[in-house]
Known about the structure:
Low-confidence stretches: none
Radius of gyration: 25 Å
Amino acid sequence: MDNIETTDTQKKNKIGILDIIFLVISGIILGLFIYLIFVGGALFLFGYIWYVNCILIFFQMVMFIYFFISWIGQPKSKKRTKCIIACAVMFALEAGVIVWAVYEDVKNVVDTEQITLSDGNKILLKERISHTTIGETRFEYTYMDVYQIKGIAAKELGGINETYFSNKCLLQDKYTYEYDEESKKLTVICEHGSASLEEQNGTGFWEREFILE
């Protein structure tokens, strides 16, 4: 009898440790997301931008897994069965949402380039296309987003609308940049190649300034 009670106690202790592990992991992930939201940034991993709203879904998945694990040591019951089914369904749905969101973002990326500036600051340039349908007409827009990279955080500094450019500046390497360490001002200069824009500003180049933190 004492052996049986000891085994049950060990099992409960084991589940308790798993609970703590999942709570710690969940807390770390939640803290990271709160930090990213606070700095107005996104997660930068494996050379890609992972937007916070997408990653928050992953955090929810972690919480559902924890909810599932917390029931493993409980006696079999209808409540436990419902919990397992709910967790499995939510896990599948949210995993699908994450895969879809990442796919939608990656497929619209034209090109990316990471730059290390003279003072060590790191910049990521991301050229992407966006589509809008009005009636039966589908329009394509091109943008270059500029991010400042700090470890695993990426803060968007702004962007350049390349919709009326003849060039895709990043993809075709038709851009240069200037950087002032003192003012932390980054100037991106694109060769737009558009006759209509050249008529407007008298030059074949388009400049945009960004201030780093």
